[in-house]
């Protein structure tokens, strides 16, 4: 199983970005998905999660600005980000809990850099 994250880049304050995460390989069931971020010198933190049923949850710092979604048919997830500020600068990682027909496990994407700067 592999997760491929994409969509990061440089954006000006107040701008928007859309991150994508694609899962591939031996996937029999995909449970919850999540996006995390790690800013320079800080620990990785949870940003948002979405269950297989579409229930979402967000850390307070991003509520109202970020929207997590998923496409169960395509095994993909997205993080739409609006009104970005310098505090959102970080490497963003996607995670998915996947049943590979032997066991459940959490898989991580490689990370995609988001830089908010003028």
Task: Explain this structure.
A hairpin with a 4-residue loop joins strand 7 and strand 8 (76-81). The protein has strands at 2-6, 9-11, 17-24, 29-38, 45-50, 56-58, 66-71, 76-81, 90-99, 104-108, 112-116. It is 0% helix and 57% strand. The radius of gyration is 14 Å and the shape is elongated. The protein starts with a strand and ends with a strand. The chain is mainly beta and 118 residues long. The chain is built from no helices and 11 strands.
Task: Provide a quick synopsis of the model.
With 118 residues, the protein is mainly beta. It contains no helices and 11 strands.
Order of helices and strands: EEEEEEEEEEE
**DSSP helix fraction:** under 10%
Mean pLDDT: 96
Tally of helical segments: 0
Q: Count of DSSP E strands? A: 11
β-strand amount: over 45%
Secondary structure class reads: mainly beta
Q: Taking Cα atoms only, what radius of gyration do you get, to the nearest Å?
A: 14 Å
Largest beta sheet, briefly? Answer: 7 strands, mixed
The end-to-end distance, rounded to whole angstroms, is 37 Å
Unreliable stretches:
none
The global form is elongated
Task: List the topology elements.
Elements: E1 2-6, E2 9-11, E3 17-24, E4 29-38, E5 45-50, E6 56-58, E7 66-71, E8 76-81, E9 90-99, E10 104-108, E11 112-116
Parallel strand pairs: 2-11
Antiparallel strand pairs: 1-3, 3-8, 4-5, 4-9, 5-6, 7-8, 9-10, 9-11
